[in-house]
Amino acid sequence: MGTGSSRRREAAGGGAGGASSGQSAGASALQRSAPKAPTCDVAISYHGDDIALMRYIQGEFESQKLTVFADVAEDTDKEEGKSGSAIVQAKVFVLILSPSSAECKSCNREVQLAYISDKPIFPVTVRDHEDPELQKAMDFGLKLTLQPMDWIFFTNVDDKATPMKELTAGVRQQIKSIEEEEAGTAGANQPASNTGSSDAKVVAVESVTVEQRRSRVTMNRTAKLVTDKSLVRAESEIGDATASADHVPGTARTFWDRHFEGHDTVQWEQFKNAFLEEYGAKLESLVSSDQDTIKWILKLTQREVFDGKDTTSKTSFLDFRGRRPERDLFFKRISQLALESYSMHGVFSMDSTVRLAAVENLGKFSSAAVIEALLDLLDDPDANIRAVAAISLGRTGAGQAKSIPRLIAGLADSDRLVREACCLSLGHLKSAEAVPHIVNRWRNDFISHVREAAHVALKNIGGEEAGRAIHMTEVLTKEIRDLTS
Question: Alpha-carbon distance 204 to 226, whole Å?
């Protein structure tokens, strides 16, 4: 699926393509569709250098009656969108990991799409886990995504059957789990019987509320189920410089208690310095000493955990971390938060090869985590990202209580593409409450494309208020033109 100079692709299909002149890529996504791929059991992502291993794995899967999508046709540009569609449709995602695929932007985007669309991910490699060339080729996002997963090693050239048997068993287990989960959905959606105490219901609601605030860090089923090997490995390599009562069973003190016991609030700079003192070595190891990435993770922590405030609070810390007595849980959640944000940016960036497929299929994985992440992208410094996030929120149709107010606010964005995207998304959502704000854009925006988008949105929303606003404006416009003719 990923690209490379030696890449060959199979099957034909249309590409995502760019937006036409004068139209935002995000806005055009409301009208355009990603190339369709058939539903399959397994989607395989690989670089052309690894085609022999891909062919072997594909053949073995198919001999076991598993359906496989592996993209090997000549026309790279046409098939990028189809790869994205295949990943969303597939039950399981397999990455053939090598230095070439690790450095391939398309492969990385495909991994990110698999992650946010909640696919079980199986990394397959002929290299050792700690192979220096492989580790050097992987950026921190790919490392963070794959390290918790169960890797399958084809390191013995004389014995492919053993790892293939392990891979097939793992894939079948995940497919069975997914099918059982899907089969149980109908029953789970039935109205529950009125059992249990009201106190129990209150506790359940409170628990859900807290978990929603942490939903940003639970996107992928595999990441949730598999032990975080990377952190365990990092701790053994770095040494337990923070050994304290925090790690004694039954006395699990949190990061906050170790550094700020007796304080309900501390300044962000103080919190940041304590975080770097305790976890700086782990961060360095995680991001290969990239200081810009470390700064980005710290800014993300301040924004997501403490709402960007200069004063941090123990309440916000615990809401994000949770109260489970687990070693270094706060650091693990920050790592997961960074991964989710990184993946969302990768999938929805303007150069993403899977962006259109992601937008097209958002309804299939519009979890609370994805919605929250899209809402956060509305604050991204990149106007293109903000525009795509706005149009994506319109496509999901979910989380409207949160997304509509944010989209209305986006109508005043400094960038015209963002304003255009917000107009179209609000129209797509048929938001009656947005009508006065959209009318304001239609009558007052100095960019014609935004005015046109606002007009389209009002027509889509319909209703008395929108109809009255359209009629009044059109009458006044005609009278003004008559006076000047």
Answer: 25
Residue numbers of the domain that contains 452: 366-484
Domain boundary among 124, 159, 177: 177
Express each pLDDT in 235-245 by its tens digit: 333 333 333 33
Using a pLDDT cut of 70, give the percent of the chain over it.
72
Instruction: Indicate the average pLDDT of the chain.
Output: 77
Lowest-pLDDT range, 35-49, 207-221, 244-258?
A: 207-221
Sign of CA dihedral 460, 463, 467, 468: negative
CATH (domain of 457): 1.25.10.10
Last residue of a domain, one of 157, 177, 197: 177
Alpha-carbon distance values, 111 to 48, 101, 196, 346, 395 (Å): 16, 11, 42, 10, 22
Q: 449, 139, 127, 85: which is closest to 286 by C-alpha? A: 139
Q: Which of 454, 321, 352, 432 is nearest to 27 (CA)?
A: 454
Strand order in the sheet with 68-70: 68-70, 42-45, 92-97, 121-125, 152-153
Assess contact for 38 and 365: CB atoms under 8 A: no
What six digits make up the tokens of 203? 């506790």
User: Mind listing the pLDDT tens digit for each residue in 389-403?
Assistant: 898 888 877 667 888
Q: Distance between alpha carbon 240 and the CA centroid of its chain, in Å? A: 32
* Mean pLDDT in residue range 116-145: 91
Whole-angstrom Cα Rg for the chain: 25
- Structural domain contains residue 251: no
Dihedral angle computed from the Cα positions of residues 451, 455, 456 and 458, in that order, rounded to the nearest 10 degrees:
130
The verdict on residue 272 lying in a domain is no
Q: Is residue 306 part of a domain?
A: no
pLDDT tops 60 at residue 9: no
Q: Is residue 361 part of a domain?
A: no
pLDDT at 43: 95
